[in-house]
């Protein structure tokens, strides 16, 4: 018999094991050793009290892992991983877990529920639509093989230990997704290498990369001085600063032609597309 409860008292090791089993046949290959899984949870604000597990006897067979923080001025939960082990699928477990999450969010006075879903995962999209989620944005995800990258350097850049991201928002063409947001970066600041370009002691471009995983959550150039090779100089230094053999840029807003073009021209390959979806919680 399947029963459901929050993940408050379930160890990260147990959750990780179920996550690996549930996503072993995912449409996109996911490589998440325990250390990387723990970093993901920290970065995305994992909150076990609003996360639900499905259990058969004592075995965790399904999960909805949720983060919690302010998002655009509202208390928001974020689905950072929903999955069911293959042998337990097609029993309505995911639908029931989401219903339980929605009930929890009401109890906790959470105003909205955010998630991302692969554009090719039609069954999940249909499920989320039935649950009341609405499409917000479309994202593109890219990957670069480090050994094939050709550095391009036209300006001098330098490294910093930290960045005051609040002061750099004017550089953005779009609001970063949850996992690339200021809060997500500041949750694990030591994980990143920060690179800037300056003019007259003023920052004109910046970027950061995960030193181990190769993930670039943000890279941007001031809008008044683009197409001068400054972004390529930042990117070249970021690529040099990671131990990873693959560099990724996830959740680029599909409507931002300039960023998508920049990544393709820099040697990145398009990997997958995602939809950002949002549920407004009804109290």
Automatic annotation (TrEMBL):
Protein source organism: Anaerocolumna chitinilytica
Domain N-acetyltransferase positions: 2-151, 155-283
Name the record gives this protein: Acetyltransferase
Keywords noted in UniProt: Acyltransferase, Transferase
A single GO molecular function term of this UniProt record: acyltransferase activity, transferring groups other than amino-acyl groups
Coiled-coil ranges (or none): none
InterPro entries referenced in this protein's UniProt entry, alphabetically: Acyl_CoA_acyltransferase (IPR016181), GNAT_dom (IPR000182), YpeA/RimI_acetyltransf (IPR050680)
Pfam family for this entry, one: Acetyltransf_1
Record PANTHER family: ACETYLTRANSFERASE, ACETYLTRANSFERASE YPEA
């Amino acid at each position: 018999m399947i029963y459901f409860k929050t993940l408050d008292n379930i160890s990260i090791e147990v959750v990780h094991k179920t996550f690996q089993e549930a996503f072993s046949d995912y449409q996109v290959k996911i490589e998440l050793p325990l250390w990387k899984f723990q970093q993901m949870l920290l970065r995305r604000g994992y909150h076990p009290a609003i996360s639900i597990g499905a259990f058969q006897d004592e075995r965790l067979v399904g999960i909805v892992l949720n983060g919690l923080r302010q998002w655009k001025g509202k208390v928001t939960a974020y689905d950072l991983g929903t999955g069911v082990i293959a042998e337990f699928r097609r029993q309505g477990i995911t639908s029931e877990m989401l219903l339980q999450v929605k009930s929890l969010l009401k109890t906790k006075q959470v105003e909205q529920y955010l998630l991302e879903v692969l554009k090719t995962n039609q069954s999940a999209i249909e499920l989320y639509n039935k649950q009341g989620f609405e499409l917000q944005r479309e994202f593109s995800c890219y990957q670069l093989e480090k050994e094939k990258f050709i550095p391009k350097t036209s300006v001098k850049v330098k490294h910093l230990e930290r960045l005051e991201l609040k002061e750099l928002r004017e550089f953005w063409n779009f609001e970063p997704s949850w996992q690339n947001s200021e809060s997500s970066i500041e949750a694990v600041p030591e994980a990143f290498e920060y690179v800037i370009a300056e003019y007259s002691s003023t920052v004109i471009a910046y970027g950061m990369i995960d030193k181990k995983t190769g993930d670039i959550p943000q890279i941007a150039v001031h809008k008044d001085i683009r197409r001068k090779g400054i972004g390529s100089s930042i990117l070249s230094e970021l690529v040099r600063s990671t131990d990873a053999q693959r560099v990724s840029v996830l959740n680029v807003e599909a409507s931002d032609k300039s960023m998508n073009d920049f990544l393709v021209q820099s040697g990145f390959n398009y990997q997958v597309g995602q939809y950002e979806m949002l549920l407004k919680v009804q109290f």
